[in-house]
Structure formats: C-alpha cells, structure tokens
Amino acid sequence: MIPQDKEKYSEELNQSISYLENLGYSNIKADIKGYDSPKSYLKKGSKINVTPDIVAEKEGRKHIFDLSLKSKKPRLLKSKWLFLNSLSQLKSYRFRLITTRGHYKFTNQTIDDINLDTVKLLKI
Fold first, then answer.
1. Whole-model pTM?
2. How far is CA 87 from CA 20, 23, 55, 82, 120, in A?
3. CATH number of the CATH domain containing 81
C-alpha cells in the first residue's frame, strides 16, 4: 500500500495484523500507530520512502508483507513491490502480498504486469 492510501485502508491493515498473529507470527512491526515502525528505505535521487506495511518473524525467518489494495497510483505500487521482492531475495527474507475480497483481480493483474509470479498471496 502506498502512503496516500494508509488512512483509507487502516482497518484492512489492522485485520491483516490480527490474522498474522493468529497464524503464529511474532515480533510484528507495522506502519501504523501502536506498533514499531519497520525500517524505511530512501529511493536514491528522489524523496520517496519505501516502507513495508508489515514485517514479522516466524520460525526464525523474517517475512515482509505488503497490502495489495486498489490504488490510484499503481505505478508507484509496482515499483515498491519490485523493490521489496529484490530486497527479500538479497537478504533471504520471505515476501508476501496480502489482499482482501474485492481486490483479487487488481492484485493478479498488477502481478502479471510486472512478472512477479514468485510472490505468494495471502487472501483474507
């Protein structure tokens, strides 16, 4: 999810966090009040910050989660996903997308556009 959509989809973010807690994830960091904020990355040559929506651990391995919800700026969302996927491959993390009902088609279409077929989807 991009920063412009954070307020609009805050309830979906809270639902995702509780879902991950029920699955056994620990040390959850989220880009929302009440949780520690995950590490942000600054895009070189611009003022764009890339922050994963949720970072959690399970069985000693870090997982990066990003919410896949309809956005007015899909190009920015695509570049964020590509960066997070590359980062997770470099550091041996796991990258997952979380999507909810009504956003499946948008998510699948966006994944196909950027050839990101290796990413697993969590459907809530």
1. 0.93
2. 21, 24, 13, 9, 16
3. 3.40.1350
